[in-house]
């Protein structure tokens, strides 16, 4: 992974954000989705750069800034990192992504990574090899700001922002409420994907155990791989949510911690569900392979039975087809119909025997 140039965090100006040159503050234009100031749960009107927004909050001594970014580059996030004094390691993770869910503390700033999951309703796993799409969500949380960095073309936060703005009393609790709302949306998406996968697995189970139906084990393996993708997002997230609920940082006030406990409960439900999916799919793979083996064994018995039946006329024809003059009954008047009756009787006897034993 490339290292973010250290000049991003060196030579920081000691001037206030409001006094920074306007040109430097425009560096985030390409990736900033929204930048807003919230005071007492309400959004202040007007458009501001990140420096102007932070200066407004600190001038008032209340409220917080919420900036949303989508797949920023190093140049896009450079000015924001300087303004909000973000740690270079966290900034590097936010730019390059490909992180596992985690929670880290850098001074008074929390950095949290969540993996987002979306079910691809239009996808055919037999052709595309996947039915879920993953992305990442990074959140920088301070006492008077929250920065969200999104990677992927799903799990947008416009709905979360509208929902929070519709409840000013709840939003007035501070930026930690935004982190909770994001975590809640992400975990709810896990529940939605889990419900869809459960339906798909139930259908696969019915097909595996349906009579006279053969299921390719590869189809089950593809589902198992998608469950593994969901598991990678769900399992590591439990510890960060537990830390937030237990007062890991003073940035999360006591009134908000109980909300994280609720999200953790939902995550536990998904985690147990994913573990059940994994075990069930393993069982289905074994059952499908056993069914294929049983069918192959049945086919071999049928082939063997018909080979035994065909061997009777083959043997008789082979004997009487030899060019010897003194073969018994060769010149007998009724040899031909007698031989045909013997062949037919022998074949019918073998057929009934194999049929009675379940080979045919």
Can you describe this structure?
With 360 residues, the chain is α+β, with helices and mostly antiparallel strands. It has a domain at 301-356: Methane Monooxygenase Hydroxylase, Chain G, domain 1 (Up-down Bundle). The chain has 12 helices and 7 strands. The chain has helices at residues 22-25, 50-60, 74-83, 88-96, 125-128, 158-165, 168-171, 176-209, 217-234, 238-245, 254-320, 335-356; strands at 32-39, 42-43, 64-70, 102-106, 109-119, 132-141, 145-151. Strands 2-1-3-7-6-5-4 form a 7-stranded mixed beta sheet, with helices on both faces.
List strands and helices in order, with pairings.
Blueprint: H1 22-25, E1 32-39, E2 42-43, H2 50-60, E3 64-70, H3 74-83, H4 88-96, E4 102-106, E5 109-119, H5 125-128, E6 132-141, E7 145-151, H6 158-165, H7 168-171, H8 176-209, H9 217-234, H10 238-245, H11 254-320, H12 335-356
Parallel strand pairs: 3-7
Antiparallel strand pairs: 1-2, 1-3, 4-5, 5-6, 6-7
Quote the distance from N terminus to C terminus.
Answer: 63 Å
Structural class estimated from helices and strands: alpha+beta
How much helical structure, as a percent, in the residues?
55-70%
CATH topology of the domain at 301-356: Methane Monooxygenase Hydroxylase, Chain G, domain 1
Which residues sit in consecutive blocks of at least 5 with pLDDT less than 50? 1-29
For the largest beta-sheet, the strand count, sense and barrel status come to:
7 strands, mixed
The gross shape turns out to be rod-shaped
* CATH architecture tag of the domain at 301-356: Up-down Bundle
Order of adjacent strands in the largest pleated sheet: 2-1-3-7-6-5-4
CATH class value of the domain at 301-356: Mainly Alpha
